[in-house]
Queue: 2 jobs
Job 1
Amino acid sequence: MRILVPVKRVVDPFSKVRPLPDGSGIDTTGIKFEINPFDEIAVEEAVRLREKNPDIEIVVVSIGSADCEEQLRKALAMGADRAILVETTHLFDSLGIAKELKAIVDKEQPSLVLMGKQATDYDCNQAAQMLAAKLGWPQACFASAISITGQMLAVNRETDLGVETVEIPMPCVITTDLRLNEPRFVALPGIIKARSKPLDRIPPSVTPAPLTRTIKVESPGARPPGRKVANVEELVSELKNRGALSA
Amino acid sequence: MSIVGIAFTPADATGIQAFAAALGLPFRLVQITGAANTTCGALKVLSAGLEDVPPADGLVASLEGAVQGASHIVAVSSMASKDVMARLAGVLDCAMVTDVVSADSPSTFKRPIVAGTLIETVEASGAPIVLTFRPAGYERKPPGGACEVESFSISPSKVRVTQAAHKSGGRPDLTQASVVVSGGRPLKDRETFESVIGGLADTLGGAAGATRAAVDSGIAPNELQVGQTGKIVAPDLYIAAGISGSTQHMAGIKDSKCIVAINKDPEAPIFEVADLGLVADLFEAIPAIRNLLGK
Ligand SMILES: Cc1cc2nc3c(=O)[nH]c(=O)nc-3n(C[C@H](O)[C@H](O)[C@H](O)COP(=O)(O)OP(=O)(O)OC[C@H]3O[C@@H](n4cnc5c(N)ncnc54)[C@H](O)[C@@H]3O)c2cc1C
Ligand SMILES: Cc1cc2nc3c(=O)[nH]c(=O)nc-3n(C[C@H](O)[C@H](O)[C@H](O)COP(=O)(O)OP(=O)(O)OC[C@H]3O[C@@H](n4cnc5c(N)ncnc54)[C@H](O)[C@@H]3O)c2cc1C
């Protein structure tokens, strides 16, 4: 059985980002890049599933510049078997990413595509569901537990109300939520060892034609500055003055 | 141009009405759960009348016909809508914009990115446009006259729900509540969280929320997580107790009218965004607040 894990290179979620001076995008000068945290959780989960089901092969794929190799190497160091880098400088929207991933799925024939629920830079939360639609496969989004029994997966999904348990047949698409696992730490020797694992560079299957286009990136208007109150009495009377305790 | 709104909950219907009014477009409604909202101002309501939102594959297959002819297919942002609407956009092979906070034109939208630290203006081309929006910025209208209702049936799914999620407790829904009281890591355990944060929420008739740190350490249930990757709230009053104010948490509360922070560290970043800040131990301050409110 094969698991495909798409990983996106994103700006470090703990860095402070600014818009480019001309407002055309995110200023990434001096910013570190990481695997999208949700994708790192997906890689970790694939590795854990393989610990219980040794015949699993884990293939990771990233779409983007040559720099994405860094994130793919990290995924290989975490335990993925091989990597595909769809090397491109074109702009993609999530629909374009889904189409590109579909081309990879058609070729690799995985039983499961395990991916992040959202990329923490553009926060779209779309690509996985769009891929599932393009493949005509069922989906289980926002997983907080996954187990394999034969051709079925049992998945706990986080919903607006709490946790729902579902059974989903393979092939399918699953997205990870934060509670699924805590990714392992890989030390430098592991990353160096992963250098010998195979990494294929391929061009995109088609030139993307994005239907959404970023026309401006700007800083949000700041909230008016607040103030500190001296004690609980002042807090409560201030809230009453503002009519915030009407309930 | 006309809108089809997908209401995953009965409360979504009024949010969709407000959004449609802002774009100045008429709308039809497909309501998935609960009793049909016939006074929300829709031209027509297709009602599935379910108890829970069904799996996305079957639901999207049934929506395909219902959304024909729409220029915009819209839903209030929620986990359910993100699950379903993106699949619908994939099937329709059309543009999708997530978490719209305002529309500059029928095809140009503003949305927060990178945990709300930046605002992106996106232009969507082609038709239809699928989008999810945050209702906070849209003025809800009073109910109108009743409209026609038709029943809506859902296609079968390959996914079987073996155990449905059920809402715990009697507090208002986090995303709808006018008061939200949230707690962070120092709340220690479930019982402490429930008595301190839940207690103040009950005093104020509000909902309880939590940080990821609190949820990850088992202090609060998952569905209470507020933030970039949890729920987005916009109450009249948000009280953050024992919360440092990470970018990811702030992303979920920025649209609150009044933010109160209670933190014992005067340097905590939450004080930079709070309208009212109280430097205090929450375990002393919260009982004192409840005392002053006479409950
Ligand atoms: C090469 C490139 C250049 C870009 N340049 C710009 C730009 O100049 N200006 C701008 O505004 N935006 C740019 N973008 C961002 C682009 O608009 C978003 O990446 C796109 O809309 C997808 O949304 P998302 O990342 O939020 O994905 P989501 O839909 O939130 O992603 C969900 C999941 O899909 C998978 N996934 C997403 N993207 C990739 C990927 N690239 N490779 C592998 N898996 C992936 C991951 O598993 C991820 O967890 C660029 C993207 C790429 C890839
Ligand atoms: C990809 C990603 C997504 C994330 N998504 C989210 C999200 O959606 N929501 C979210 O909340 N976080 C999210 N996080 C986590 C976030 O970065 C922070 O780690 C988290 O919000 C911190 O929670 P906290 O404020 O409870 O804990 P801490 O940062 O540990 O803060 C605890 C605070 O309590 C104060 N304190 C301690 N004792 C007392 C006392 N007795 N009385 C008063 N004050 C006290 C301390 O001074 C401190 O400021 C995400 C992180 C990542 C990487």
Job 2
Amino acid sequence: MADRAAPHLGPRAGRQALTTTVEAYLLLASARVRSDWQYRTSFAVFLFASLVINVFDFVGIAVLFTKTETLGDWSLDQVAFLYGAAGLCFGIGDLLVGSVENLSTKIKDGSFDVLLTRPVNALVNLTASEFTLRRLGKIGQAAAIFAIALAVNDIDWTPGRGVAVIVMLGAGSVIASATWVITASIAFWLINTREIGNAFTYGGGLAISYPVHVFEQWLRVLLTFIFPLVFVSYLPALYILGIDSPLALPDFLRWSSPVVAGAMVLVATRVWRRGLRRYRSTGS
Amino acid sequence: MTSSRTGDPETSIQQPGPAVIETRGLTKVFTLRTRAGALRRHRRDVEAVNDIDLVVRAGEMVGYIGPNGAGKSTTIKMLTGVLAPSNGSVRVLGLEPVRQRIALARRIGVVFGQRSQLWWDLPLADSFALLRTVYRIDAATHRRNLDAFIDRLDLGPLLDTPVRQLSLGQRMRGELAAALLHDPELVFLDEPTVGLDVVSKHEVRRFLGELNREQGTTVLLTTHDLSDIEHLCRRMVIIDNGTVAYDGPLDDFRSRYGTHRTIVVDLQEEGPPLDVAGTDVVDVVGARQWLRFDRRLTSASQVVTAIVAQRAIRDLAIEEPDIEDMVRRLYDGTAHAETGPQAP
Amino acid sequence: MAPAGPSTPTRIRVAVAPYLAVSTRAFRQFATYRGATFAGVVTNTMFGFIYAFVFRAVHDEVGMVGRFTATDTTTFVFAAQGFLLMTGAFGDRDISDRIRTGDIAADLYRPVDFQLWWLAHDHGKAAFHALARGIPPFAIGLVVLGLPFPGSPAAWLAFIPATVLGVTIAFAIRFLANLSGFWLLDVRGVVALVGIVQLLLAGHIVPLYFMPDRIQAIVRATPFAGITAHPVEILLGARWGGELLAIYAGQIAWLLILLGAGRALLGRARRNLVIQGG
């Protein structure tokens, strides 16, 4: 067990570190799933409730389209595409790291300190130990809507567009995950005001389910520069659906989501580490 | 104040090994923000731990005690890397706990009395299996340890029970096994016997004693219970108000600060407070009276003889001073220790 | 001359005292969560803006929806956000939690009316949420979007009783849902589902007047419509005369039915408890 005392040097150690991080995540998450399986009925009910809320959510949009043909010049098919993509990305992000929200609760009841005594990366430990399959409700619904949207929209399929769909979902999930980690880290500084982050994780997810050009400028700025959520669904959609935005944006933005995702990962790691360091300096 | 005696030759490891815990000037200052009025905030710096120098060597079993709020958990948190010190240095097993938290975590075991480290809804056996992977224990070691713990802590019938259904005593035995599966060199136990019944306490103590003797595992035991210390630890570190108030063998401490004992006597009938030379009546409730005496001035037998001569008694008991009493005495009565007559 | 016993005003005061006390205590208790309240206001406001902009885009296409303008809808959205917490749309489980832990036994033996006691508690909580989570998002939305202050004095006068009725209906429904904890092992899902249904049918996901006519009629007949949608529409000045009376009548009718059902269910639960020797 030579890695005991050796600091993390070299690419070999890096790869080793990654495998064990993923291993640890899978191990702890599966233990949590098994634990939750003890409460099967409760899980089933919550899954059902999750499906219901998501159905109702989309019902809301459908209702709007009984009154109008277009929303900000976008048809129901196109909005459904946005909705499905946003829902998938945020659903996956929630599934993977959403549990990081529990940080404030865990700090308050002292169980975060217990987490820190284990030889596991703190963030992995936190997200994996509270992993829940409940979030599959959102993912299922969003996947269905997205699949239908892919079919009904008259997409001019090229290899580029095919790749773009996959990149959109991948990068979008990463951006959403990073948003979760960053907003949860607020707990390290403002333990009681942590929920402010919900405005971006849940609010943000809601916002980018719609064509953002219907929003006033300040909100668009918020969703582009504060938390770059427009890169999750809206901008890639312009390319995939082959439509133009009334906002007259440069084309390259439509393919920038991987870069944005990478930047968000850096920011999220930085913020988390900073927060953790602060927590260990000031206690709770 | 620091004694280097290692105590009873029958139960101790004679050669103290290299230092596994070394702190120098360890300090932790918290900034408390309290609200004074609607919007103003009042800031106050609290020294939870102040300038502690502590050296624990391999194979030692140290009792770490102190009243609530004395800084015990804060110290443990700094030793395990959960909290960063405000000042001073700390090295555990040669590592810096904060910077090398994960590396250190692989080599230590921690048991929290109040919080469980086990997977609450899964059978106990599952926790052991999970920990095997988390700590990367090789199959042979895992098997060996698991078998030994199941045997010594009588865990066999508990293995298939979800942890949440275990009694406190059963769970604590499971926690101990879990903390030791990976053969840690150093174990921190935070109030492990609190709330346990007598039988479980005994088993836990026996187990810890064997562990220390046979494996040479260093143990730092935080507790309120003086009898834990008596049964297990040769060395006792008392922390009060963030500083080390005493660091040495239990016996020395007893004889220096445990000067007063209390006799609780049940008289046949109620009556006025007893008047016995060398004692103070501390309390009277019905026919029961509490008399306190200084062991250096008189003895239990003298007091009892005097009481019996004065009144008919039904029953009596002798109370040992508790740790809080002694620590209090340690501080405001340091004068006693220095000016009073020497221990008998 | 023998004393005639306590006067009626005193009797009333004494009878009402415990309920007032629990109301005040609930208000105070929630007033201590300052950080969370602030965070919640920010989130509510954000949601308000998102929905407001989306619905406004619909108005941009079609002009009025029913008898409501874009300004009406925007006002509706922010008012509805304000109603969220005070109508317990996120599913409060206080009663069912106490059933789970068994503390409910102590509550049932208290010499106060169980349902009224919890109603008083709910009203205290709602009062705080109305002030702290209701007004701020509403005010911020109106100010930022430059909207006129809604409602005439008459509309406000009609709005307030409708709101109180609405909050109470929401309580009555939640009360029933929580009581299912006496029979169901895990009531969390039930309470969550009720909250979710409330979100849709009370107009939080989309204002009811956007819905197609026939569906709208059905939704408005449910008790949920009277929780948020109807009071806010009154505030917008859209419901007068016969319609206003119909709304009040509907609210009162549902209130009596639901509170009555609650008391009946409670009686059942009490009897079961006694049989089980609890």
